[in-house]
Amino acid sequence: MTVGSRWPTLFVLCAGTLMVILDGTIVNVALPSIQSDLGFSQSNLTWVVNAYLIAFGGLLLLSGRLGDLLGRKRVFITGLGVFTAASLLCGVSTSPGTLIAARFLQGVGGAMASAVTLGMIVAIFTEPRERSKAIAVYSFVGSAGASIGVIAGGVLTQVISWHWIFFVNLPIGVAAALLAGRVLDPDQGAGLRRGADAIGAALVTAALMLGVYTIVKAADFGWASARTLGLGALSVALLAGFVLRQARAAQPLLPLRIFRSRNVSGANLVQAVMVAPMFGFQFLVALYLQRVLGYDAVGTGIAFLPITLAIGATSLFLAARLIARFALRTVMAASLLLLAGGFVLLTRLPAQGAYGAHVLPALLLLGAGAGLALPTITTLAMADATPGDSGLVSGLASTTQQVGGALGLAVLSTLAASRTDHLLGSGQDTATALTGGYHLAFATGAGLMLAAALLTATVLRTGGRSPHAAPAEPLPDQHTARAKR
């Protein structure tokens, strides 16, 4: 691939990523309209979101490995096609069952397209400084997509109808797939015989899907309920069975040797802890704006614009320079401290707050921290990936992000709801009780960010070099690993 064609290729990959990420949040604002139009019950309405999350989170790891085996370009374009076709089905749905099934199919396509994107970026941008810039752009698109989804969902739902939050994907998906066919270099992949572990694929997919389902439904049944504990134990058992299978299989789906890299293992651990409060923050701040300050859907989306701009300014213009100058571990720890500070500010939100005085400073601090953290942790997670494993490592990083985010959202929202109920029972007014619940969740988020900073300082001891330093030892290839045994 020529130097001049790299950035158009990145544009195509980011367009596909934006469409998938945007769809994860654009639906939230339209849920009341969908419920009244299609006749969803309150309990079944959550499946409009959960069906997508379960398929997406459950298939990321498998999709990443399929990219290495079948070719990342092929899997990416197929994913875009499935996602676009499913978006059409969502838009024309006339019953709850049809919409839920189409949303599950959307999650399948989204997982296929997303899982291999980072692997392709790492393969295309081999020069460290260019790779840092490309990952910064990718990270910005991913984080901005969530905020844009809130705005777009409110506008499209109020101005036209909820159907158009899905129809808007059609021209983007078709254009991205056509352009991908032209600008992405073909890659053959290693072939299914190099890792067609059907049993392992079934185990890990079932474990992840069941795990995500258990997390997202825990708020309904209780974290200590027999249902939650039983399903959680079954998910862990399936995952343990998968690990045992990979240790013994001749051609494993997930070669366990990749975890020998401190970059891979440590970065995924830090990312899981970091994204847990970030997913919850977006949900809870939106609730604070709407239920306490009285914002409507469009106003809530616009209120999130400053954090999007802060993430963009930091990730696009500052992150690559800092990563080139300082150790990755140093940049990561500093960004996590900024994020912790933003959550501390959120714990001081008053029941009679003002956006400019109380919400905006926290959003700007969180945006600056996220703009540094996202490209840095992505660079760390992909630093030691070999060409043959880059799709798998990319899928693993995406899986960690989704599972960690789902768990964080479920835990923080449950903490907030429990605290609110307690305050209401003690005689507090609604606004004060709601704000008190959010305070507990945000304080927990600050603690998690500090824990992630501590992990960065300890776990990433050998994986915290800048890309311009001496390269880290690459992941051992399969034949070398076997020879050593």
What this model shows, in words?
- The chain is 80% helix and 0% strand.
- It has helices spanning 3-38, 42-45, 47-70, 72-91, 96-115, 117-124, 128-159, 164-167, 169-183, 198-221, 226-248, 262-292, 297-303, 305-325, 328-346, 355-382, 390-425, 430-459, 478-484.
- Helix 1 packs parallel to helix 7 and helix 15 packs antiparallel against helix 16 (355-382).
- The longest helix is centred in the N-terminal third of the chain and has 36 residues, at 3-38.
- It starts with a helix and ends with a helix.
- The relative contact order is 0.13.
- Mean pLDDT is 79; it is low at 462-485.
Write the layout of secondary structure elements.
Layout lengths: L2 H36 L3 H4 L1 H24 L1 H20 L4 H20 L1 H8 L3 H32 L4 H4 L1 H15 L14 H24 L4 H23 L13 H31 L4 H7 L1 H21 L2 H19 L8 H28 L7 H36 L4 H30 L18 H7 L1
What overall form do the CA principal axes indicate? globular
As a percent range, the share of strand residues is under 5%
Q: Which regions have little confidence, pLDDT < 50, spanning 5+ residues?
A: 462-485
Portion in helices: over 70%
Class of secondary structure makeup: mainly alpha
Give the tally of β-strands: 0
Number of helices: 19
Rg of Cα set: 22 Å
- Give the topology string: H per helix, E per strand: HHHHHHHHHHHHHHHHHHH
N- to C-terminal distance: 37 Å
Q: Summarize the main sheet.
A: none
Mean pLDDT level: 79
Keywords:
485 residues, mainly alpha, 19 helices, disordered C terminus
Brief digest:
The protein is an all-alpha fold and 485 residues long. It has helices at 3-38, 42-45, 47-70, 72-91, 96-115, 117-124, 128-159, 164-167, 169-183, 198-221, 226-248, 262-292, 297-303, 305-325, 328-346, 355-382, 390-425, 430-459, 478-484. It is globular and about 65 Å long.
